[in-house]
Amino acid sequence: MWTGFVVGVALIVMNPAAIVTWVVIVGSYLAGTTQAEGVFACVGIGCGSLAWFAFVAWLADHGKRVLGDRMIWVTRVVGILLIGYGAYSLGRAAYYLLGKLDVI
Fold first, then answer.
1. Angle at Cα 85 formed by Cα 36 and Cα 4, nearest 5°?
2. What percent of the chain has pLDDT over 90?
3. Distance between CA 47 and CA 41 in Å, rounded?
4. How far apart are the C-alpha atoms of 91 and 85, rounded to whole Å?
5. Which residues contact 24 (CB under 8 A, 6 or more apart)?
6. pTM of the predicted structure, to 2 decimals
7. Are the C-beta atoms of 54 and 4 separated by less than 8 Å?
């Protein structure tokens, strides 16, 4: 399990798209924070990410025994959540832009 976890972490760390995605998503929510709040947020995000990737590595290691045929539902739920987040972000951006244009 540790070999797979280390490979997964290395792939994420060396993937510039993953780094940019985290900066864009998290940066938009932390724009108005103080330096101390930013540090706490980074530590929290780091701990949460470590826990998440450890959990994913464990699931990958135990895959079929843990989820079996229900794994397709995990993929569907995650897809729906990502679509929802995209719609929310798009709405937020539109509201911001329309506010800047004095339309709203």
1. 75
2. 20
3. 10
4. 10
5. none
6. 0.47
7. no
